[in-house]
Structure formats: structure tokens, C-alpha cells
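Structural prep section.
Before we set up the soaks we want a predicted structure of the protein with coenzyme A in place, mainly to decide which crystallisation condition to try first. Input record follows.
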Amino acid sequence: MADPLADGASERIQSGTEASGSSIRYVQYTDENDLPIVMDLVDKELSEPYSIFTYRYFLHQWPHLCFISYDGDKPFGTVVCKMDLHRERMRGYVAMLVVDKAYRGKRVGSELVKMAISEMVKGGCEEVMLEAEVVNTGALRLYQGLGFVRDKRLHRYYLNGVDAYRLKLLLKLSEARLAEPAAAAETGGDGGAEVATDMIA
Ligand SMILES: CC(C)(COP(=O)(O)OP(=O)(O)OC[C@H]1O[C@@H](n2cnc3c(N)ncnc32)[C@H](O)[C@@H]1OP(=O)(O)O)[C@@H](O)C(=O)NCCC(=O)NCCS
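Run finished without errors. Recording the C-alpha cells verbatim:
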């Protein structure tokens, strides 16, 4: 079987912005060399402990849906996602998102999620799901800003006993996108994901 990481590495996405004197870059996950970087960032920030098998589950199958933000050579943020069929529709899922405390409030978290969603759109996803703690106002605000809406409340979803909101973002159907190139192009001006808030349920 072909190595699923090989293609991703050759088509690796990189983008950069200059912000307040520092150079912030966004780099797509490449291979196992990036795994400790992602694990360190996530383990430091999330309440939920993940095993290396969980990380490998996501990163081996969907390396193109993981991005790492760097300040120079220093990694400081990451997003880990997946996408698969759900009731005959492609569905994206944001599994992990963290930004180091020193870099928060600069829209890096939003940018990481937008880059992952952009890849999901390319892969034909029609919706994106995720869960966030009901007390995590920062994450809820970030996702609300990207057009996510609350789908349901999950009682004691996390190991720490906290409830979660399941959040959902509906994306334009890929077929509609192909049929209406002008409409699809109108949201793609900033290089980020084409997030269609007009399709939210
Ligand atoms: C949640 C997290 C990723 C946000 O990263 P970030 O880079 O600071 O987020 P952004 O700068 O893109 O913020 C996007 C929006 O959310 C708001 N926001 C972010 N953190 C906030 C906070 N703690 N309180 C209130 N609003 C917050 C921003 O003000 C911004 O709102 P605006 O669009 O109205 O201006 C970061 O705080 C983090 O890593 N937290 C710990 C891990 C975590 O909770 N991950 C999410 C799991 S679901």
C-alpha cells in the first residue's frame, strides 16, 4: 500500500504573514517528524489526555488536515482534523485546536481552522462538526465567528465531567460550487477557507 504521507509531503502547503514584527507561518503536517511537535502543543493545553495512537489515527490518515503555526522556528499552535463519510455525505471534524497562551488573540486559532476547512472543502465536505466545553468561551467565540452554530448539548461529555456543545458548520455543496463558479469565488478572496455562513441551519 502507498504511504499516505508521501503525497501530502510533496504538496505541502505553506503560508506566512508578518504580524507585529514577528514572522508567523502556517505549515501543513509533513510526517512523523512533526508528531512530537503536535503532541507537545496539544498535551500542554487540552484537558483531555490523548494517547499516541489517537494522534496517529488522525495524522496518518489525514495529514493534510493538520496545520502547525510557527513564529520563526518556534511552533506555537496546531489544528488536527479528519474527514469521512457520514450518511453518504462527506463530513469534516475538528479534533484538536491549540494556540500557545503567548500568541492568543492574534487570530491564529481562526486561521488554523480556516486552513483545515479549506482542505475539507477541496475534499468535498458538506459540513464540519466539533465539540467544545460549554465553559470554553474563547473556543466558542472563535467557532461562532467562523459561522459554526450549536447543534446539541452533550451531558458530561468530557472525562472532567464538563458538558460539551456539538457545533456544526454547513458548507456549500461541492456540486453547487462547480455549477456556480462565480458564487464560489466570492468568498475566496483572502486565501482562507470558503466558509459559507449563508448555508447555516
Ligand atoms: C481557543 C483558542 C484556540 C483560541 O485561539 P486564538 O488564536 O486566541 O483565537 P483567535 O485570535 O482566532 O480568536 C477568535 C475570536 O475568539 C475570541 N476569543 C479567543 N479567545 C477568547 C477568550 N479567551 N475569551 C473571549 N474571546 C476569545 C477572539 O476575541 C476572537 O473574537 P472576535 O472574532 O470577535 O474578534 C486558544 O485560546 C486555546 O488554545 N485555548 C486552549 C485550548 C482550547 O480550548 N482549544 C479549543 C478546544 S475546542
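Observations: Residues 45-46, 97-99, 104-110, 132, 136-139, 141-142, 145 surround coenzyme A (CB under 6 Å).
Flagged for discussion at group meeting.
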